[in-house]
């Protein structure tokens, strides 16, 4: 399936999540808006690698000092990897959300799922 018209990056879930696409792998993380909303991160409930999710499904939950956020998928796919560092150091999400604090990588089935975020 051609990735024509599918964005390489963007924000979704009312600007609370960002994604970065390289080929069929999408990395997902929190934006500053989400970080301000949840406060300091206390716990992240990650899915298992290899788990399959449909577009818009909740893939993980982050609990913070001010509340929690459900992270959904921008496209259908399989969990390729989770950021293991965050299980030991969850505050990395708020300290460096765009680099070290990424949450999850999905192997997506159809990049055209991302077209609405272009």
Task: Walk me through this protein's architecture.
The chain is mostly beta strands and 118 residues long. It has one domain (9-117): OB fold (Dihydrolipoamide Acetyltransferase, E2P), CATH 2.40.50. The protein is 13% helix and 40% strand. The chain is built from three helices and nine strands. It has helices at 32-38, 85-88, 92-95; strands at residues 9-12, 17-22, 25-30, 41-45, 52-53, 58-64, 67-72, 77-82, 104-108. The strands form two sheets. The chain has a six-stranded antiparallel β-sheet. Strands 4-6-7 form a three-stranded antiparallel β-sheet, covered by helices on one side. A hairpin with a 4-residue loop joins strand 1 and strand 2.
Strand content: 35-45%
Q: Report low-confidence residues grouped into runs of 5 or more.
A: none
Give the oligomeric state. Answer: single chain
Question: How many structural domains?
Answer: 1
Mean pLDDT: 93
List the secondary-structure elements in sequence, H or E. EEEHEEEEEHHE
The CATH class: Mainly Beta
End-to-end Cα distance:
17 Å
CATH topological fold name: OB fold (Dihydrolipoamide Acetyltransferase, E2P)
Helix content: 10-25%
Largest sheet entry: 6 strands, antiparallel
Total number of helical segments?
3
The side-by-side strand order for the widest beta sheet comes to 1-2-3-9-8-5
CATH architecture assignment name: Beta Barrel
């Amino acid at each position: 399936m051609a990735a024509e018209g599918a964005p390489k990056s963007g924000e979704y879930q009312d600007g609370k999540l960002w994604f970065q696409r390289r080929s069929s792998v999408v990395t997902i993380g929190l934006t500053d808006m989400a970080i301000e909303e949840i406060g300091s991160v206390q716990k992240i409930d990650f899915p298992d690698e290899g788990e399959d999710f449909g577009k818009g499904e909740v893939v993980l939950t982050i609990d913070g000092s001010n509340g929690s956020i459900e992270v959904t998928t921008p496209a259908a796919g399989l969990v390729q990897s989770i950021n293991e560092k965050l299980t030991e150091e969850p505050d990395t999400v708020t300290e460096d959300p765009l680099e070290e604090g990424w949450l999850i990588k999905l192997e997506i089935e159809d990049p055209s799922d991302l077209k609405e975020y272009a």
